[in-house]
Amino acid sequence: MSTTNPADTLNESEVVAEAEAALAGIEAMRAEIGKVIFGQEEVVENAIVAILSGGHALLVGVPGLAKTKLVETLGTVLGISAGRIQFTPDLMPSDILGSEVLEQSEDGRRSFRFVKGPIFTQLLMADEINRASPRTQSALLQAMQEYHVTFGGERHDLPAPFHVLATQNPLEQEGTYPLPEAQLDRFLLQIDVDYPSLEAERRILLETTGMSEQHASAVFTGDRLLELQKLVRRMPVPESVVTAILELVRSARPGTGHATTDAHVAWGPGPRASQALMLCSRARALYDGRFAPSIDDVKALAEPVLQHRMALTFAARAEGISVRDVISDIVNTLDRS
């Protein structure tokens, strides 16, 4: 049995036909990214899943792991405009959103004209986002949720599609401003970027230190990406997957009867986490060449969807327990149910 939105206009056979047409492009996209990004298959997969789902992602990893290169490559392969903002403590909201300049016409009349800032791009890399002040960080909140900004009382729509891929260094925390919970919740996924494998690092050494480097080519366009995002929302979801999503997210909230959560979690994820799991499970299935998500998709996405939407108690942190440990226990409980 499958669950679909009553407002969907395509039946399941039409969704399958559209998905089959999209698979060749997705496979070509993976091949193009593989020319530039070596290893890191899970990181690449989760970043693309976030974009296919129409959301934003937070990339967490130490410097030098090709986070910036990944964002640049995604912009090229997806055929969308990409921009980068280096977040620093002295960055102001107007440095992101834009500003008004006073102009004088030939007849002497003066008026203000809005000059768009770097946020007006389709794929924005917010580099080291936690180095900016809370005031500047909050400038992204409206854009990430509502896809427009308000300046001088006027609304300015952002280009479509619009995605933010932010990076954060987990090591150097001096002089940083931790992202508030409201902004963390705007990120569909938190993607942890680990060190490459031995074989991947060998390829990096051999292929990036010579006279020439491989370059990715465009596979999609912005309009095609929007079509794929609509397709993801039309994909049928089995009732068992819906049940698994609800059980997983609700088990991550204290006071719902899960022993590990009740003992160690101060506050858990809200309904936006369930929405993220539903969309990302569909997108992951499409990325893997399947026409409907499975419970395995939910399990695989549990950590990137939930870890930035939960907080442990002080006692749990003192005992050395991590959010990952709690999520792993919840997923294991899902296996036994």
TrEMBL record:
This is MoxR family ATPase. One of its GO terms (molecular function) is ATP binding. Keywords: ATP-binding, Nucleotide-binding. InterPro entries: AAA+_ATPase, ATPase_AAA-3, CbbQ/NirQ/NorQ/GpvN, ChlI/MoxR_AAA_lid, P-loop_NTPase. Signal peptide: none annotated. Belongs to the MoxR family. CDD domains: AAA. SUPFAM superfamilies: P-loop containing nucleoside triphosphate hydrolases (SSF52540). Residues 53-197 form the AAA+ ATPase domain.
